[in-house]
Write a structure and sequence with these properties.
Strand 15 and strand 16 form a beta hairpin. By secondary structure, the protein is mainly beta. The chain is globular. The chain has a 22-stranded antiparallel β-barrel. A five-stranded mixed sheet has the order 8-13-14-11-12, with no helix packed on it. It is 6% helix and 53% strand. The protein is built from six helices and 39 strands. It is found in: Cell outer membrane. GO terms for molecular function: siderophore uptake transmembrane transporter activity. It is a multi-pass membrane protein. This is Iron complex outermembrane recepter protein.
Length: 774
């Protein structure tokens, strides 16, 4: 209650303060676009400053920028700067709103500077958009996508042991989280709790999170939010550049090596390319007191991109392959009911495991191929058209310990092929109005590969989805409004045989209308208020409808319900923010009602015994649920070199149909960070910092007794230390970093870890990172 009162007080103070922030004579606006003077293509990421006043903004993915609340009869100087271009300065005396085109000229190339022209994913929404900073990415580099986003307030992880993690946004995960991988909707077998996103984080440089229900803009399944990973724009200068990353992780004795090369093509203006690859290998990791057997990982990824830009058009081709083999903790697969109950009571494995690199059954092997072709067209009027085709092939194999030498045969062998076709048109700014409209088509085919000598967990199925949307924006000097509507239709046709060779499945059709309404209010240079109400939906997955078997990777026996309905989520997000001087505060308050919420309910005391062991039983159920919570992020500059950061997340979720708590909801958590920018005077060393972090995760006390195999674990405190520096190596740069997570080697359990019944989480993790850019 005390935390809730503090958040309420902050919001109330924000509202009162903002009432007095406006100035009558400062209501003018400068709108404009930055383009390359040679190609006339828009330039993203250009820094534009307006003096006096200290106004600064970055041009978006289509080159647009906008300053508001500028004053009449003030002599302003507008300055645009970008690497590889000459800076441009324009004097202005404002007496009315201005619309400008800033054409930047190529500068002289010094030390192989690289020019980039790109159409980055432009995120324009009334919902809060949070970005993972480059420093935060560097501190968890070499880990999973979920680890990267868990550095943001409101994001945690659903874990299956130590090798698999999925992002959880405000209590939502799995198919309720839509992931855009380089502009393509990521489609794998993400329905499984232990099916992590098949994305190599080294491909991307930009990591963004949208917390609201974004069903209109991005389609079905965006109930809980949207994760966006984007690579940097390709260069156009014909100079070879790239980077090399090397990481060592002491826990697991693992190593990661990732490299990237890119360049424009000499003699062909506008043609550029990039290749990238990553190799990762680690062995058994350890808790504070013991090794976890069979927790090694072997991962090999590659990607390639080509872009051709001409006048107002651009063509992109992209391909990536993600391949991983990872072990599943052996201690989660046990023999008898008495044995599994004893292990849950003990809370740790009975066996002693040595360190080893071998990956044996139970294990997973996943290969994900993604291809993309995209055409972008910028109109002279300021409108733009995007047409994109994507194809993905996800091949998932799960292996278990089998008799008669059959360990080489997978228990599950599934191939999911997904094709998408997207078209989006954005009109130019007509006065104060801008419209975006588009359509999305998706075709999926899932096949179980024969020869496993095992009944598939889910059936073969075909799925087709068609959707169309329109979004209207009103852009004023101090506020913007957005109204969107969308319609989706999905047909799902499944066919499979159960263990008794009975045919099951059939065709089901789902359709729904999504909508959103929201706005952004900027009453002054220090305050901003966002608010958005969104309706999103998702159809039940194949496993929720039809699973009736052992899910080997999760070490669970899952039972679906063929009569499940679609989920419908209604989410309201209010996000005030304040930035002034040494203080920055971001607060996200949200409430969500989910009709026909689908979840896997543990069945305490119910176990299924097979020839491969004894496993807990989880049944898919449906109810109406509510989610309420708050995410807070603050920064305070204590001095020129010292910065304090506080982030906190609380969530309350209930099954309102039965008036009980929902299972597997993240516990409240608080993060403190103290960052010291070390004032070194060396010309060869820059941006040296040391960061101390404390994480406090409370015990999840909002659960129903006797509805789980073990009660939620106690609260825990973790401490971490990060340090880094950038070193000049000739004309290039070497970024060095050291991290120590769980520095005190604290034994703890995370409630959101499905293997907390059998083991603790990771012990001390020491990592060393080297990143060389040239």
């Amino acid at each position: 209650m005390r935390i809730q009162k503090i958040f309420t007080t902050i919001l109330f103070s924000l509202f009162l303060s903002s009432v007095y922030a406006q100035t009558e004579n400062c209501t003018l606006t400068i709108r404009g676009r930055v383009v390359d003077s040679d190609t006339q293509l828009p330039l993203a990421g250009v820094t534009i400053k307006a003096h006096p006043g200290g106004h600064q903004i970055i041009s978006d993915g289509h080159g647009y920028f906008r300053f508001s609340q500028l004053c009449q009869d003030i002599h302003y100087v507008l300055t645009a700067t970008s690497v590889g271009f000459d800076s441009l300065s324009i004097p202005l005396l404002l007496d009315t709103d201005e619309t400008l085109t800033l054409a930047l000229h190529h500068g002289h190339i010094v030390l192989h500077d690289v020019n980039v022209v790109g159409h980055q994913q432009t995120v324009s929404t009334a919902n809060p958009v949070r970005t993972v900073s480059r420093e935060q990415v560097a501190q968890v580099q070499g880990k999973t996508l979920a680890d990267i986003f868990s550095t943001l307030p409101g994001v945690s992880m659903l874990q299956t042991g130590t090798t698999i993690a999925k992002p959880v946004i405000n209590g939502m995960h799995g198919n309720r989280i839509l992931i855009l991988n380089n502009g393509v909707r990521q489609e794998g077998q993400q329905w499984g709790s232990e099916h992590a996103p098949e994305i190599d984080p080294f491909i991307a440089k930009d990591f963004k999170l949208i917390k609201g229900a974004e069903g209109v803009r991005y389609g079905a399944d965006a109930i809980g939010g949207v994760i966006i990973t984007s690579p940097p724009p390709l260069p156009i200068d014909p100079h070879l550049s790239g980077e090399l990353n090397a990481i060592y992780q002491a826990n697991g004795r693992g190593g990661v090596l990732s490299g990237m090369l890119q360049s424009g093509v000499k003699g062909i203006t506008g043609l550029a390319w990039r290749v990238q690859g990553t190799a990762k290998r680690s062995g058994n990791v350890s808790t504070a007191d013991y090794y976890l057997g069979n927790t090694g990982v072997a991962e090999y990824n590659a990607s390639a991109a080509v872009r051709y830009s001409h006048t107002h058009s651009a063509f992109d081709a992209y391909y990536s392959r993600f391949h991983t083999s990872l072990g599943i903790f052996t201690g989660a697969h046990v023999g008898t009911i008495a044995d599994i109950q004893a292990r849950i009571e003990a809370g740790e494995p009975f066996e002693t495991y040595p360190f080893a690199y071998g990956i044996n059954a139970p294990r997973q092997r996943v290969t994900h191929d993604l291809g993309k072709l995209k055409w972008h067209r910028d109109q002279a009027s300021g409108g733009s058209l995007d047409v994109q085709y994507g194809i993905q092939r996800n091949h998932r194999q799960e292996y278990d310990i089998r008799r008669a030498g059959r360990d080489a045969l997978p228990m599950l062998d599934m191939v999911l092929t997904t094709q998408t076709l997207d078209a989006t048109y954005q009109t130019p700014l007509y006065g104060k109005w801008r419209t975006q409209a588009g359509t999305n088509l998706t075709l999926q085919v899932n096949n179980n590969v024969p020869g496993t000598l095992n009944t598939p967990l889910i059936p073969n199925y075909d799925s087709f989805t068609a959707g169309a949307f329109a979004i209207q924006r009103l852009i004023e000097n101090t506020h913007e409004w957005e109204l969107g509507i969308r319609y989706d239709f999905r047909t799902f046709d499944a066919a499979g045989f159960d263990r008794y060779q009975n045919l099951y499945g059939g065709q089901r059709d789902f359709h729904n209308v999504s909508g959103s309404f929201g706005g952004v209010w900027r009453p002054g240079n220090t305050w901003q208020l966002r608010s958005n109400i969104g309706l999103a939906w998702r159809a039940p997955n194949a496993n929720e409808l039809y699973s009736n078997g052992l899910h080997h990777g999760a070490a669970l026996y899952e039972i679906g319900d063929a009569q499940l309905n679609s989920e419908h989520g209604y989410k309201w997000v209010v996000s005030p923010s304040y930035t002034r001087g040494s203080v920055a505060i971001d607060l996200d308050l949200y409430g969500q009602y989910v009709q026909d919420y689908i979840y896997a309910q543990p069945s305490p005391g119910e176990f299924l015994q097979t020839i491969r062991g004894t496993f807990p039983v989880f049944r898919y159920e449906q109810t109406d649920a509510t989610f309420f919570g708050a995410d807070l992020s603050t920064k305070y500059q204590l001095s020129h070199d010292l910065e304090y950061q506080l982030s906190a997340s609380i969530i309350r979720a209930r099954d309102i149909s039965n008036d009980v708590f929902l299972p597997y909801i993240p516990a409240d958590r608080f993060n403190h960070r103290l960052r010291w920018q070390v004032p070194l005077t060396s010309k060869r060393t820059t941006e040296t910092y040391i960061t101390f972090e404390h994480r406090w995760v409370l015990q999840q006390k909002r659960y129903e007794p006797n509805t789980d195999y073990a009660p939620p674990p106690p609260a825990y405190h973790l401490f971490a230390l990060y340090a880094g520096s950038k070193l000049a190596v000739g004309a290039h740069q070497l970024d060095v970093g050291v991290s120590v997570n769980n520095a005190l080697n604290t034994p703890y359990r995370e409630y959101m870890n499905r293997f907390r019944y059998y083991s603790h989480n990771l012990g001390r993790e020491i990592g060393i990172r080297l990143s060389y850019s040239f």
